[in-house]
Amino acid sequence: MxxxxxxxxxxxxxxxxxxxxxxxxxxxGAFDYVRREAMIPxxxxxxxxxxxxxPKTITTPLPFLYLRTPYDATAYVGNPFPETYVADMARDGxxxxxxxxxxxxxxxxxxxxxxxxxxxxxxxxxxxxWDSIEWLLKNVPGNNGRVGALGISYPGWLTxxxxxxxxxxxxxxxxxxxxxxxxxxxxxxxxxxFRQSYGLEYSYLLEMGKSNPxxxxxxxxxxxxxxxxxxxxxxxxxxGSKLPTWRSFIAHxxxxxxxxxxxxxxxxxxxxxxxxxxxGWWDQEDLFGPQAIxxxxxxxxxxxxxxxxxxxxxxxxxxKEDATHLGAIKFGSATGxxxxxxxxxxxxxxxxxxxxxxxxAEATVFEGGSNQWRSYDAWPPRAAVRTSLYLGANGxxxxxxxxxxxxxxxxxxxxxxxxxxxxxxxxxxxxxxGSRWYTxxxxxxxxxxxxxxxxxxxxxxxxxxxxxxxxxxARLHAATTGxxxxxxxxxxxxxxxxxxxxxxxxxxxxxxxxxxxxxRYRRSFAKAEPITPNMVLDYTVDLHQQAYRFLKGxxxxxxxxxxxxxxxxxxxxxxxxxxxxxxxADFRAQTHKILHSARYPSRVEVGxxxx
Length: 611
Fold this sequence. Notes:
It is built from 11 helices and 29 strands. The chain is α+β, with helices and mostly antiparallel strands. Among the domains are: 1-176, Rossmann fold (3-Layer(aba) Sandwich), CATH 3.40.50.1820; 385-609, Jelly Rolls, CATH 2.60.120.260. Strands 2, 3, 4, 5, 7, 8, 9, 10, 13, 14, 17 and 18 form a 12-stranded mixed β-sheet that branches. Helix 2 crosses helix 3 (154-164). Helix content is 17%, strand content 29%.
């Protein structure tokens, strides 16, 4: 028997790299962790700031857990691991690596937002990953030759890059809330509609300096501030022109090669690395990404190593909280603890340490309403039956197709008076004193139900539970007096309107699924084209996926509107080639008409599970 014993008192130094002296040990569980810092050289000579946290004494070789970030690597260490999802893993014993990516904080080089994959023809995040892993394997004692990676949000996207790197030492990755496609459905655009406030404020955070400066222009209600700007062109003149990503928005308003080259699901479709993708049903930033990358990889997953977990969370909530609730919505259990202890920890222990049998389903999803975790051998579930919820006359909603020869609902949409996406005041997105950005997707929608520019259809009181699982897709037949229009669709659970001890949320309108699409892209996201005024046309609004049980005694509601401000920019409703260049005179009020007749059955399609 060979006894392995490594005391981590120093690191070997290779040419071009520098290593800081060791810090004092800090204890997590049974392990005393020691911190070291290194500037790791890349193939082009750029050096990346890296923190290595390893147990002081390693009796059995340990794997690496690698986390790359644009948000300051030093934020992941201190006491010694302030991030809960890292601290939980530290109790199991790993060598942790935290790294600032190019151009941010203490790393050298030039930062580029979602740097596109070069397919081995240049420098990108996959090459920086490869070079860093090579250095770590050679220069950090006590490692077992295996690397796992995880991260949430932008670090989730960087985790996808680790999976794409092809390095043979990478044995498990968990991209969590990864910003997979920032035009189609993640941070910057959703199906053509520009996420105005997030696009400006997040780009400012990453591109106005190396240290993520807070967006503070001295205004508390950003709804009012964005409305006063009038146009995107004015925002470009006042602030946006300073931001490289904002300039990209102007140059590439449609889904062209610029965006497709950054869309991970377009280029990462096969993996040999066990992959655990994680998302939240009420993720206000990256709901699309986890679903898209899981679907892309699943098409070629013959080895059964591609899995997905989706919980009842906002953006990254599972990584830092016990997650018993979100806003007013209670989950009935500590869902964050469950994920970290019962799913994440066994996943990495199995693939990186050969510890334990991995009893993890293809898909593990939290079913809202019933507050139950469900396991499926496929996602969406094979048992889900595609069913339509039909919009009807007089605001009715049912599973029965309309029979009327003529039936429609119309409303006037005025860009000068846009529908707010959350109750005012709308604080800056990452307002340090507390912003409701994190919970707006579960806000009670009654704050807009009185507006004449929000159309609503409601079912009868449910006589039995209705459980949906999988894709939620709205198919609208609509016309407008204008030559462009946005379509916002919301699927809502309406709680019973009563006051009793077991129903503290009487009448609450919980948004279960919601999304927007820009009408100019109804035929092609790559090419904008005007809408013919007053012509009935078909629009598909992908509300992505959900697992939810509408309980007996509740009602189901669908709402349609054409502004969602200031998160989304205002559509001028008169066609211009590039809305970023629209002038004030282009913005006009228009009447929109949703048809719900036998010939034009507007509906929301869902997958209904058997009771």
